[in-house]
Fold these 3 entries.
Entry 1:
Amino acid sequence: MSAPVVPAALADQVGPTEAGAAWLERLPGLIEQARERWGLTIEAPFPTGTAGWTAPARTRDGGEVVVKIVFPHAEAEAEPVGLRLWSGRGGPELLAHDPASWSLLLRRIRPGHDLSHDEDLSRRPPEQRLEIAAELLATLHAAPLGDPPAPLPRLSDYTAELAAILRERTPRHAPALGADRGLLSEAAALLEDLPREARPRPVHGDANPGNLLADDATGTRRWVAIDPKPMLGDPAYDPAPLLSQVDDPFRSEDATTLLRRRTRVVAATTGLDAGRVAAWAMARAAESALWRADKLGDPDGAGAELAQARAWSRLAV
């Protein structure tokens, strides 16, 4: 067996750490185990993806599948739980899972392009893409948790940790960034308070346009959410990446008005409160800005995200 290709994006993200380098050394064996376990003919991996090795494959009977071998890390622990929860109901169909090797077998999605690369939708206003995404989020949020409930981590625990980290980073990075400490303090408070005020529902956790794929398996175009970081918490947490990334609203001369209109579109489709959606977006942008300054040493990127947080703060309640 020839050595498997490791996409550059995955190697760059995982390889620099000791644990990541050790996992990359084990990866050929993990791929071979998946091939034998599920009787697969595995093709070259997809070039994207920074947290796992993912490749198209065929089963012995010719079925089109995707094998995903995840780099073990905390944010990915609950992915199989979310995939089971949403399998065929807003998420890709999960066919098999091997917990020991962090390996997943999924039905392949065709045509499989993401929301940002749909040729038809690219000719329409971005609000139509947001409506489609919001309909999918509503489906995910409405999934029954089962009895006993699916063992999802709590969003409140995750964001409480983020709040503590944000407060620790503020005095170290705010002066150099010229950041508004009041805004950062409010963001930390929102990360703690927002989860306490909502009825918990299953949330995707990483609902960006690249994780929403077109699926024509039933003969009718539907959209499927992949790569979840599922948690149990406030569903208003989910829309922020879609609102910020479906195009670049912050290039508009009046970003606040544009964000207000688009947030109302998402709120009307999902039944969420527009002010809460904006509050989560503000808190997440502020936290991400200081993460970027601290971990990436990127003051320009951090400044851009702080500007986004200020725009969102005008809409938050």
Entry 2:
Amino acid sequence: MIGRLRGTLIHKQPPWLIVDVNGVGYELEAPMSTFYDLPELGREVSLFTHYAQKEDSVSLYGFLREAERRLFRDVQRVSGIGAKIALAVLSGVPVEEFARLVQTGDVTALTRIPGIGKKTAERMVVELRDRAADLAGLGAPTLGSSGVPADPQSEATIALQQLGYKPAEAARMARDATAAGDDAAAIIRKALKSALR
């Protein structure tokens, strides 16, 4: 389960932080990439979250940027990798750099991330290489500082990607369907109508 959490930051000690939301404290585990940019205690914070439930535990993870949450989830799809290593990846290297290392197959550099051995790095390259451009957001629309798309065309592009279109194809469809004054819903409707022809 994924979502957003907005509240007051009341505790931060890596890897844990606590956010107060209307009197309820949520304890989250977060990578160092998030900790570096957290506001001071007592200030409002908005986090992308990932909720994980296993047979014997429930965990909540927090990220300042959607790209970090996406990488956290994608890395765990690699066989033999769990949340601990996914957090280590995010703590050890920026999302864009990780995507570059995977695209170029730089196993040596990947093994410098704590907890990643040669075989794990090789599995990451094999299993994530096709998704590396998407991990870094290459070819995908730019998000504003609030984490929402900067314009209706970008919003439509993200929606089309979520419907299963590849990033480049979604961007082309949205661009071709956009007319002055269109909102995202209008762009999506026109793009899907055009795809059915």
Entry 3:
Amino acid sequence: MVPAGTDANAARPRVEGDREQEILAATLEVLGDVGYDRLTMDAVATRARASKATLYRRWTNKARLVVDALHATKTPTEVPDTGSLRGDLEQLFCGASPGDGLMDPAQVALLGSVVTAIARDADFATAWREQVVTAKRAVSRQVWERARERGEVADDVDLDLLETALPGIVLHRVFVLGDEPTPELVARVIDQIVLPAATRGR
């Protein structure tokens, strides 16, 4: 029984640590199976072998739950430092080992499963941009600013525009044209589009 004067929600045990990671992993599994639109808190609770009340102690709705799960998946925490813009971009988007970054089919599939949600669910879109996109762009921006300090990027280049060119082109070719996300594709975009644009007028 909750003592008088104590907030009932505050008295409940928090969902954290390994249990939180298990629920987030179950969320990604359900998201991969059915997509965002058909994902429900009930389905995640069943997959995680938890009660729906347990989920609601930590997440107010499925948008917040899915965003937390996506945020926990391979968000880069260290900025690549290969000594060149080309090397840093390759490592950022291809990963330090095979199967990382855009080369990870599971990551690409998860992104595809939330594309429609970004357009339809304003709460999800806002949370996704704040928690997932912001973290990834912070790492990307450090790569670009460091390249500019090394003299690899012309002073008049718009970094806000150019830093989105590589993921934008690659994901367009993957989702719209049906291409495979390969290191070769990333390298072609870097060499033929990104680097020439970065050094224009230098």
